[in-house]
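User: Can you model how iron/sulfur cluster sits in this protein?
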Amino acid sequence: MFIPATPEEVRNLGWKQLDVILITGDSYLDSPYVGVSVIGQRLLAAGYRVGIIPQPNIDSKNDIARFGEPGLFWGITGGCIDSLVANRTASGKRRRKDDFTAGGINNRRPDRAAIAYANLIRRYFKETKPLVLGGIEASLRRIAHYDVWSNRVRRSVLIDAKADYLLYGMADNTVLELAARLREGRDVSELRGLCYAAAERKSGFLNLPSWEESAADPAAFEKMFLAFYRNQDPRTAQGLCQKQDTRWLIHNPPAPPLTEAEMDAVHGMNFERAVHPFHRRDGDVRALETIRFSITTHRGCYGECHFCAIAVHGGRQVSSRSEASILGEAKLLASLPGFKGRILDVGGPTANMYGFECQKKLDRGACPDRRCLYPAVCEHLRPDHGRQLALLRKIREIPGIKQAIVASGIRYDLLLADRKRGVPYLREVIRRHVSGQMKVAPEHSEEKVLRCMGKPGTSSLLAFRDLFRKLTAEARKEQFLTYYLIAAHPGCTQADMEALRCFATRELALHPEQVQLFTPVPSTISTLMYHTGRNPWSGRRLFVEKTAAGRELQKKILVAKESGFRYENAGRKSIKREEKSWEKTRTLKKIPRKNLPKR
Ligand code: SF4
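Assistant: Here's the modeled complex, given as structure tokens:
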């Protein structure tokens, strides 16, 4: 059943008032891939009366007042992507297309959607039930954060939106506990995965540098962010508090990741896997094409690439579903109208993290001073692709399924570290689970840039490339590797992009046409580097390309048809000079060595 999106649907269910009203910046897609529909369906399954208002018009009362007021709380999310990432490029230009809006035109989601929707509710409902923020936008902006679009350190979105609570991370369980406590009139302030504002700091919680200090001084911001980042493991994290103006942001420790049984329960819910008919007249939602016939096998990622937000949103621990649950979903997909025999993805944030985890992490929490995959795969991880292999084989045997593609990225260093089943896994994926191209994400070739990204060096990439070619030839198939590459990451200069171009041509036999420009998403380590101009682990200063022309130029160096595309085409002769003199022009207060992290 769809979550009701119109008053008629509510009336048809015999409901007089809703308990929870959800507001989202996307069109309403009912799918296990969409956070707001997971949250709504979980609440419905627990017996709450829930309605959803997708993409309300923020200039009128009509949409937001459609259901009246909820009995328990308003739940607000910007959508599946941070609204500024969805709406604008890193240089602030408006994006015209939107995969999460019916019709594909980006004209329905306001910038800073969580704040806009909270203001909209308060405008028409003065003394209303609590406003609860959630989703990726709220999660990544839950403490003071650098925002590239306004080029400043902003307060928590909870404070800016004047909301009552913020649920961060994957809040499947937290939202149920919040709803139960609000219904029973109990205190919610101890809930894990919750932030709220208070008049005083909380005793026993770690006091972060205040928002004012962090905004005024990049060194204080760095110290604040690293303390925040180190306290994200549910087993070891301390609660945090941070003064923001006259109030305190209280950040409770994270909620534990879901167990296998809980993951199965979430994915076993009765999703429609379709766009709500409410949007029918506006056209299709493009995102549905890729997720309708895809399967999530797990959540979380311990890759910790510095530009990625998963570590502070989805967590460093991988939670996998059971084989039975995944096979059940595969059978369900095979029975749906419109299914043409192909599952478009069997994966997660990183495809080959399914089915194993570090026991030490499960027992005592993720190591605060080590990383699971960088600079090399940790000896305690013991990767084992056996469960994935067995799973893929069983999916293939389901009647009606001709192919199940592994479209999510594969971590090649992890695959190579599994000496027993890594090669058999890749052989099988190449033979049966690739649709012509396999995606990998080296992101760059230059050691100093890779260090800034937290990515492995090129030796594992080249070993994987050779293995891929060998197994592809064995399978007598014409298949290729496609490479994700990033330009203008902190630490990357034009010379590095030239070197990447040579590497791509020489070693990968590739002329890249699609290169991503680094976007400083809030609350990532790369964004910290972008803001401070320093590598937080080494304390060394970095070159950071911030000008729009210089960033575009880095990209063009890689994608231009002819090599040598460099300063003469920049339209800005000062770029080269800036790169050379950046060290002199940047000023940053020195952090005492004892405050630097151990990594
Ligand atoms: S022991 Fe290794 S694999 Fe386990 S959490 Fe620590 S760094 Fe990660």
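A couple of observations from the model: DSSP finds 23 helices and 22 strands in the chain. The chain has a mean pLDDT of 92.
User: Helpful, thanks.
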